[in-house]
Amino acid sequence: MRHGVSIQYPQDAMWRNKLRFQRHADFRYADRVPVLFGVFARYFLKEFGIDFDEYFRSAETQFYWQLQFQKWAFENLPDDRCQEPVVTVGPDFENVLNTSAFGGHIEWRAENPPRARPTILHPDEVRQLRIPEIHEGFWAKYMRWWQTMTDLARETAVTFNGQPGRVVVAPLGVQWIGPHMMAIDLVGDDFYWWMLEFPEACHQLLDTITNGLVHAETCFRQIDHSPRPIFAVAEDSAQIMSAELFRQFCVPYDNRLFEAFGSGLRDGRGMHMCGKSDHLHTTLIEEERITSFQLFGHNVKPRVAARNLGGKCYLWGNLDPVLLLEGPTEKIHEAATEFLEALGPCRGVVLGDGANVCPGTPLDHLAVVRETAERYALERPEMFAA
Length: 386
Prior knowledge:
Strand content: 5-15%
Structural class: alpha/beta
Order of helices and strands: EHHHHEHEEHEEEHHHEHHEHEHEHHEH
Largest sheet: 5 strands, parallel
């Protein structure tokens, strides 16, 4: 065996976590509202004292660190992520995988996540954009890393409480980032006024991007036949747009992806969107027909989310990450209580951040969130069954 990791996590807690999410899938509860935090690489890198240069050094290096991150997360984070004796890893290129494949310039820095810089500077250049082949460029590197991690997973011994577990590599996929987000990465902020002044060029760009994503996802699924329980897109760049512009420049392209890859999945039309998205909720429900709103932004008031979205899709959010970082704990408790009182009765909700836990966030601040969920359940026994 080339790698090994030993994880300590109570079996009964694992069973309760799994039951919470099984009931969640049916808009029901077990003993309380599930709690799950969006904790990603930047949080772990600070915790382990390494930088992004180390994290991106090679597929095996990233595989090793992800094993360490998941062990630490299971044993330390006060949430419900550990539901079975499985560690999930996979190639992680933050949010630049697809943009890089389309020729976007990526800045790699040791201290920050990779970031895309604009490479399409004039609407006339849109005509030159071509759909990349998955066997060249960044998608090819992604697949090489996936294969390396798949091989390493077979040579890794994992135990939970001394009993055998296993390592699973996440399925190949285009990984969330939606067409509009990619357009902003490729063009920059100018794309917002291009939509008004050069709408045909914008639609052409979005069409090419969407065709490319369909091509890539189709090829990935032909290579990797693993089941995929969810298909979701992220359109963080859209929340500053009007509902009308969103209908024109996001809905048709997101829906093409949903229809191609979300059909037949319980959560096949998932959406992530940071920021204040209130004005888009009706469109998300009625025209994109989303099945979940994942890690939705803390700028959305819980009572607004309850009114617009409650009971119509799964909801995961949405405590202010800066509040979780800085406290005080009394304010964290108040915010978690506000979320639960507004959204708890809607069911189908997960309490967490909105979105992305900040590096350095104290664990005792996160623990307040779970404690609040436990207290809420005790105060409303009629809503919860053991």
